Every structure is written in C-alpha cells, then in structure tokens.
Amino acid sequence: MNAAAHRGLIEAFWRHANARDWPAFGALLAPGVLYEMPQTRERVRGRQSYVEFNRTWPGDWRVVVERIVADASQGVSEIRFLVDGQDMTGLNFFVFEAGLIQRITDYWPEAYEPPARMSTVVERC
Amino acid sequence: MNAAAHRGLIEAFWRHANARDWPAFGALLAPGVLYEMPQTRERVRGRQSYVEFNRTWPGDWRVVVERIVADASQGVSEIRFLVDGQDMTGLNFFVFEAGLIQRITDYWPEAYEPPARMSTVVERC
Q1: Is the pLDDT of residue A117 over 90?
Q2: Which of the residues A1, A11, A40, A88 would you substitute to probe the B interface, choosing the one with the greatest number of B C-beta atoms within 10 Å?
Q3: What distance in Å separates the CA atoms of residue A52 and residue A73, rounded to the nearest whole number?
Q4: Distance between CA atoms of residues A92 and A68, nearest Å
Q5: Which of A2, A65, B82, B91 is the most exposed place for a label (fewest CB within 10 A)?
Q6: pTM of the full predicted structure?
Q7: Is the per-residue pLDDT at B2 higher than 80?
Q8: ipTM of this model?
Q9: Between β-strands B29-37 and B100-107, what pairing exists: parallel, antiparallel or unpaired?
Q10: What Rg value do the Cα atoms of chain B yield, rounded?
Q11: Under an 8 A CB cutoff, do B118 and A89 touch?
C-alpha cells in the first residue's frame, strides 16, 4: 500500500477508537499485532488483547489527531488524548504490512521545567 | 520534493550534527526555521540561532537514528541521544518547504512507572 492508504489507516484507527467501534478497529490490526509503550516497558500482544486494552480504557476519552506522517511502510500520528479534564500529547508510531497494522509504539511525553541553557537563543512561550 | 528526498534531509541533518559540521547543518534549514520543544514551552527562531543552540549543546553527545518516516511535506525521526552515559529517546517532527527544514518540533519522552491497568492483557518487558 502507498503513503496515502497508510495515512487513511491511521485516520480510520482513531475514528473507530473515538466511535468505540471495536469490530472496525480490530479489522485494521494484523492478528499478531504488537503494541509497545517504551516509557513503561509494557506491551500487549495480539489483536484480541489489543482491542480489549483499548475497549477497557477508563473514562470518557476522546482523541484529536493533530498530525499524521505516513510513507510506504510506516506512519506516525501526533494526537491529543482528552480525558477527565486532562489534555495529553500522544505520539504513535505504526508499522504496516499487507494493509494491516503490525506494530504500534506509543510515547506520552510530559511537560517539565527546562534546564539552564548554554545559549541565549532560547525563548519561553 | 518527494518522500525519499525528505528522508535524505533528515539523514543529513543528523549526520551533520554528529560531525559538528555546522555550515552543512545550517544549509538544510530555512532562514526562518522555527524549533519548538512543547514539553518545556521553549522555542528557537531562525537559522543562526538554531545552529548556535545545537553548536553549544554541552557534552560529547552522539545521535543514533532508530527510525525515519517521511512523506511529501513532513517527516519524523526517532533517535537515541547519547551523552555522558545517558541514553535518551528523542522524537523529532520536521516540516519541509522547498527542500529546506521549516519547522522542527522535538519531544523527549521519559521512563515512568506504569499505572494500574484496567485489563490483564498488558505484559511488562
């Protein structure tokens, strides 16, 4: 599949998640899909488990897609994950094969206070 | 420019950074390049300032590129930033225009302890 089709897969992934349409969501995933969260060293293996992981996520959450980059084999989304008054940034790397999502690697960067900088060119906004 | 050329720009960006070849690094940047770090709400504006920001970064650092995704207008790299025994993950979003880097948005996700999970499908690795 080409870049545009992979972009469409990522759009569908979040659309079905927001709609809680778990059959449609699951149909985008390879049977052996691997989901990884490097920051916590957690993973979920397989379509059924990964659907369950999302289906049982607590709260009335909603995802807003801010950016998608996709090429002939991979893709990335930058999202806002909104739940219970929280507004988190998620960065989601996708690997595709034969039109299905084979691997997802999620990062959840958090705000922190900047260190002292070596140069004066940095502004705060 | 196409996806392959944009991938090449990201490869050159990190190659020149690792080589401390600041003229070659700067030549990849648009004059009005904008660098943003959303986690600390910091930014650096303009080619000269952004080269300075990188040139003065402390330590004998080195970048290992783990993954690049690029399309006809944007790109992303996942890197390891190695310095003083530290091994950090960086996620770098690039926006291109006319063959130059117009905008860079960096995220630096850190390890954290996982919360209690609602489902039993999550493994620790």
Answers
A1: no
A2: A40
A3: 26
A4: 9
A5: A2
A6: 0.96
A7: yes
A8: 0.94
A9: parallel
A10: 16
A11: no
